[in-house]
Amino acid sequence: MLYCLILLLLLCLSSTYLCLSLNHDATILRQAKLGLSDPAQSLSSWSENDVTPCHWRGITCDATSAVFSVNLSSFMLVGPFPSVLCRLPSLSFLSLYNNSINGSLSGDEFTSFTSFHAAEPPTLRSFREQLIRYDSSELRRVPQAREVKPRRKPPLRYHSRLARKRIHSERTQTRLQSVFTGSNPESTR
């Protein structure tokens, strides 16, 4: 009998933790929604009455019902980058492609990600394909915004197994907006 009571207590505690986690993810997503203009009502399924965000449009949860993917591509959203999304503990994919998201980002906002991927604009996709054709070794890092000098060809540094090389971009006016792919960059401080 005591064994059943202990098991029941553990079950209640674990489900309470799960509900708190889901409520935390839902709260973060609602905060992001409040900071954006949504003229097409694309985020209308993000209801305050729904504790779990796993069935909301653009949201994907893992087996533990934690949000790991936020895909807001072509939602016609307007506003600053919703940096509150970086507080989602299990987030590993974020796409804000084809929206009017603006503002600046710091590398500090992405320190909680172990792996982070996002959709990229077609112009940058073609540049990346040229880079991969040039050398198939592993890309180590992309220059931070503060490293790119305006009106000059920004260097894209990478480490090759054979030699260190520097590639100059032909797209000098291209700005990297909402484009992140690969592992969390190492701190440059």
From TrEMBL:
* Phylogenetic classification of the source organism: Eukaryota, Viridiplantae, Streptophyta, Embryophyta, Tracheophyta
InterPro entries named in the record: At_inactive_RLKs, LRR_dom_sf, LRR_N_plant-typ
Superkingdom of source:
Eukaryota
The UniProt entry, under Gene3D superfamilies, shows:
Ribonuclease Inhibitor
Start and end residues of each Leucine-rich repeat-containing N-terminal plant-type domain: 22-62
List UniProt keywords, sorted A-Z: Leucine-rich repeat, Repeat, Signal
Q: Which Pfam families match?
A: LRRNT_2
The protein, known as: BnaA01g08410D protein
Signal peptide residues are: 1-21
- Specify whether Transcription is a keyword of the entry: no
As recorded in Swiss-Prot or TrEMBL, the protein's gene is named BnaA01g08410D
Q: Does the keyword Iron apply?
A: no
